[in-house]
């Protein structure tokens, strides 16, 4: 009996500890895999960022060393697939919480920022513009996180054809809103990819700063995923 009880407790604890945690650790460019950690700044843990005023909200922190010195070339108008998995190691086999725990709902959002050198360490002061968002579809009740789960961790982001050629960081985040009825509570899982956009045009989209784009009162930073039937994705598109 005692043994059974102990294993029951262990089972319940294990089941309860399945977490939303996820890490964006690789990209594909127009369907071509670049390799794990190539041209992506991969954090060493899958811990969430929860402080939206912290520099970690820019590109995360505490990266696997050495950080990739690769810059992935992408034609303007091309598709970059941001690949999320449960741990920083990427896909390591069947795992009910890969790419993330499907019970943890929330949006997936991507921003670009022009940068002199996509491999430079300093990411402060960049001007970000949103190029992708996947929040809550009120018809299907599916979240961006559901699409991420169903796609095996791929968030496919089209690089606008109108932006200027040059080096950029691509910031992609999966936000878990399971404990987000008040701030702090939302959990941000994000990384930045290092890109060289070729071709392109002359557009200069309106931009925001990180930190700054999100505040505790920005719509979508708090949410009740168990009650709300609509959701506003944070940040302007
Ligand atoms: C996303 O891109 C990957 C390749 O990078 C591809 O295998 C997958 O089919 C794409 N998913 C969608 C929904 O287009």
Automatic annotation (TrEMBL):
A single Gene Ontology biological process assigned to it is: cellulose catabolic process
Provide this UniProt record's keywords sorted from A to Z.
Carbohydrate metabolism, Cellulose degradation, Disulfide bond, Polysaccharide degradation, Secreted, Signal
Gene3D superfamilies registered for this protein in UniProt:
2.70.50.70
**What residue range is the signal peptide?**
1-20
Pfam families recorded: AA9
Q: What is its EC number?
A: 1.14.99.56
Provide the catalytic activity annotation: [(1->4)-beta-D-glucosyl]n+m + reduced acceptor + O2 = 4-dehydro-beta-D-glucosyl-[(1->4)-beta-D-glucosyl]n-1 + [(1->4)-beta-D-glucosyl]m + acceptor + H2O
- Ranges where the Auxiliary Activity family 9 catalytic domain occurs: 22-228
Which stretches are transmembrane? none
The protein's GO terms of the molecular function aspect are: cellulase activity; cellulose binding
**Subcellular location per the Swiss-Prot or TrEMBL entry:** Secreted
Any one annotated GO CC term: extracellular region
Please state which protein family the record places this protein in: Belongs to the polysaccharide monooxygenase AA9 family.
- Provide the function of this protein: Lytic polysaccharide monooxygenase (LMPO) that depolymerizes crystalline and amorphous polysaccharides via the oxidation of scissile alpha- or beta-(1-4)-glycosidic bonds, yielding C1 and/or C4 oxidation products. Catalysis by LPMOs requires the reduction of the active-site copper from Cu(II) to Cu(I) by a reducing agent and H(2)O(2) or O(2) as a cosubstrate.
What does its UniProt record remark on the domains? Has a modular structure: an endo-beta-1,4-glucanase catalytic module at the N-terminus, a linker rich in serines and threonines, and a C-terminal carbohydrate-binding module (CBM).
Xref: PANTHER family: ENDO-BETA-1,4-GLUCANASE D (PTHR33353:SF17), PUTATIVE (AFU_ORTHOLOGUE AFUA_1G12560)-RELATED (PTHR33353)
Name assigned to this protein: AA9 family lytic polysaccharide monooxygenase
Organism for this UniProt entry: Trametes pubescens (White-rot fungus)
